[in-house]
Specification:
This protein is α+β, with helices and mostly antiparallel strands and 694 residues long. Helices cover 14% and strands 21% of the residues. Strand 4 (218-221) and strand 5 form a beta hairpin. The longest helix is centred in the C-terminal third of the chain and has 23 residues, at 671-693.
């Protein structure tokens, strides 16, 4: 009986670990980014980038003292375990949750160490802890609460020794030890140190094939997992297309038959239009999808919403000057919901959507005529993320990006599955029909508007979640005068604008909205970026964010973050070293067009470089291939050998990963679906063991 219950306990612990996606770069257990201390901690021996402030340090000290440990060696080990919450990698050490898992995962010799973790890490720390502390009395032991009542120990008993809670070192280390092979870390008694894998040789070049002549702003793989994808353009149309296998032909897209046409509602101009689209993770079942666009209240009666320049944001719209002959908040940013239900026997087979709007999710008046971003995408958590610029005006004169009562210059996180009541919308001052995720940062910072997930951005232009490491939420943010940047977005992160532009302090030419001091914020600096002097001919630059490359078409690009510049016609690859460190080096990558491209590429006059035109955006299909959406057409990254680039990892005769089945209506194989299958499997195992052990 005891053995069966213990087995169930261990499976339960593993189930808890499954409830969190893979975590990687420096991140705290509350999903926030580590920060630099202004004064050293008094108790925990951590400095530099940490996850504990002085208040939390004092709480850990009090917890340690309450344990009343008489053995000096054991006390030292227990202190190091408690202080692991301050480690910049604590989200990994605690598998994202220091509440249900009160101690970090301890390095255990029976599990292999993560190859990214330093080889100097003690692989037997769990064994060392047991040998040192097994017979030491521990009050309020962190090893007891999560398992009391499940391993035969009566809840509330006075048992305080490890040997009285656990039958053996093996049982103890099976429960608290490990170093999984999925990229997770373990605690070895001190701050996490990662292996430096040395300088990585950048790919010799990026080979492209042109598969379409159209100019699009957004691309989203069909949620059914097939080889189809949606494309949208700035004037306001969405198309459903079939993506051919590499080298097999052109993009199958009928320009005369759009999936949805919103050109009557969308205001299209240089910086206005349809800025994004997002399909519900369960689109195959519910047919829901969303469009983000701009409208003109003078031309469209339904273009009505509150002005973002308002008294809550310490802004008076009557004092704003017209911008490009437009009055303040004449133009709006809108998220509207549409449906494919009722146009075919099932949503996955729909080739056209209903043209009428189902629900208005968000409407907000814009103070100026630029910097309103507008991308929307669903995160791995199922919430809708909405990227919003600072509203325009040179240097963000009203300091909207640092104003916690403004959603300008922010990334918002919305729950569109649970629509708030009219009373809740009014009480919370929401901008439309959505609700607020319960773990948004406002729950711990009452000054923040409830929609805000991250702040301090100028004009985030194209963001993406890494399909293999969901905690890597990458956003490119366009600069003002000097610097274009790439950021890793984290909960409650402040990315500095307009206190900083990149890593440099920024001084606005005018500031009717006041200023924010550098000492008053914990700015998170870019992980990559470049200065405007890379493009001397244009005299300007504007970054376009991309994706981590996860296709095997070009194995030498695998795991690198690919991004570009609108004007400079340059493409970079960002390489992380050490792996999972959040430290990147970037290399500008040569690119050329395959000689057998389905559509022949034009070249820049006097050069063999493809004439891409403007790089508007990047896209990713269900095969994880990367596409470049430009003013001259659609390009796909393909095998390097087709452009005579060398890559020792490439098998030139075949692509190792198979293409998705054509146009299959199967449900989306998302992370959440995979998780649910694993959970069901474990629950089934638990039930079997319960029945077997009774």
């Amino acid at each position: 009986m005891m053995g069966g219950v213990l087995t169930i306990t261990l499976l339960f612990c593993n189930l808890l670990l499954l409830l969190h996606p893979s975590l990687s770069h420096p991140l705290c257990t509350d999903s926030r980014a580590p920060f630099t201390l202004k004064t050293p901690l008094n108790f925990c021996p951590y400095n530099g980038s940490v996850c504990c402030n002085s208040t939390e340090d004092l709480e850990l000290r009090n917890q340690f003292q309450a344990m009343n440990i008489s053995h000096q060696g054991c006390a030292s080990l227990l202190k190091s375990i408690l202080c692991a919450r301050c480690d910049q990698f604590s989200a990994q050490l605690f598998r994202g949750d220091s509440i249900s898992q009160p101690v970090p995962v301890l390095c255990n010799s029976t599990f292999p160490l993560n190859t990214s973790q330093s080889s100097s890490a003690s692989s037997s720390f769990c064994s060392e802890l047991w040998d040192t502390c097994q017979n030491v009395s521990l009050s309020n032991s962190p090893f007891a609460p999560s398992l009391q009542g499940q391993s035969g120990v009566t809840v509330g008993s006075n048992v305080t020794k490890l040997t009285e809670l656990w039958q053996s070192k093996t049982d103890f280390c099976n429960a608290f030890g490990g170093a999984s092979t999925d990229g997770s870390l373990c605690f070895d008694g001190g701050p996490v140190v990662l292996n430096n894998t040395g300088a990585s040789t950048p790919p010799s070049g990026l080979c492209l094939e042109k598969i379409g002549n159209g100019s699009y702003l957004s691309m989203v793989g069909h949620p059914d997992g097939s080889n189809r994808a949606f494309f949208s353009d700035q004037p306001g149309k969405i198309w459903l297309a079939t993506v051919p296998k590499e080298g097999a032909g052109k993009l199958e897209l009928d320009e005369t038959n759009p999936f949805l046409d919103l050109t009557d509602e969308v205001h299209f101009d240089a910086e206005f239009g349809m800025m994004g689209m997002a399909f519900h993770p369960n689109f195959v079942q519910n047919g829901r999808f969303f469009a983000s666009f701009n409208c003109d209240k003078i031309k469209w009666p339904r273009c009505t919403g509150r002005c973002s320049c308002n008294s809550d944001a310490n802004c008076d719209p009557s004092k704003l000057q017209p911008d490009n002959n437009a009055s303040p908040c004449q133009f709006h940013s809108v998220i509207a919901e549409f449906t494919a239900n009722g146009t075919s026997s099932q949503p996955s087979l729909a080739t056209v959507a209903k043209p009428s709007e189902v629900r208005r999710i968000f409407t907000m008046g814009l103070p100026f005529t630029s910097h309103h971003a507008g991308q929307i995408l669903f995160g791995p958590d199922g919430y809708l993320y909405f990227m919003m610029g600072d509203g325009g005006g040179s240097g963000d004169p009203y300091n909207f990006a640092q104003n916690k009562k403004s959603v300008l210059g922010k990334i918002m996180r919305l729950d569109i599955n649970n629509i708030a009541s009219a009373a809740e919308i009014s009480n919370l001052g929401l901008w439309g029909n959505y609700s607020i995720p319960k773990d948004n940062p406002f729950t711990e910072d009452e000054e923040l508007l409830p929609e805000i997930w991250a702040m301090g951005l100028r004009n985030p232009w194209r963001c993406s979640f890494d399909s293999e490491r969901p905690s890597y939420f990458m956003c490119a943010d366009t600069g003002q005068d000097e610097y274009e940047e790439v950021d890793i977005i984290t909960k409650d992160g402040n990315y500095g604008w307009r206190v900083y532009e990149g890593m440099n302090l920024y001084t606005p030419k005018q500031s009717p909205g006041g200023n924010t001091s550098a000492n008053s914020i914990n700015a998170i600096f870019p992980v990559m970026g470049y200065y405007h002097d890379i493009n001397k001919n244009e005299g300007s630059a504007s970054i376009t964010g991309g994706y981590f490359y996860r296709s095997m078409a070009d194995p030498c690009m695998y795991g690198r973050y690919v991004f570009g510049d609108l004007y400079a016609k340059a493409i970079w690859a960002g390489t992380e070293n050490p792996e999972n460190s959040g430290n990147f080096t970037m290399n500008q990558i040569p690119f050329s067009c395959a000689h057998d491209s389905p559509i022949q590429c034009n070249s820049v006059p006097g050069s063999s470089v493809p004439a891409l035109g403007y790089i508007f955006s990047f896209g990713e299909d269900n095969n994880k291939d990367i596409f470049i959406l430009t003013s001259s057409g659609v390009y796909r990254v393909v095998r390097p050998s087709r452009c005579n680039y060398s890559c020792s990892k490439e098998n030139a005769t075949a692509i190792s990963n198979p293409s998705p089945a054509p146009s299959s209506p199967s449900s989306q194989a998302s992370w959440l679906n995979d998780l649910s299958k694993n959970v069901l499997l474990l629950l089934s195992s638990l039930l079997f063991l319960v029945l077997f052990s009774i």
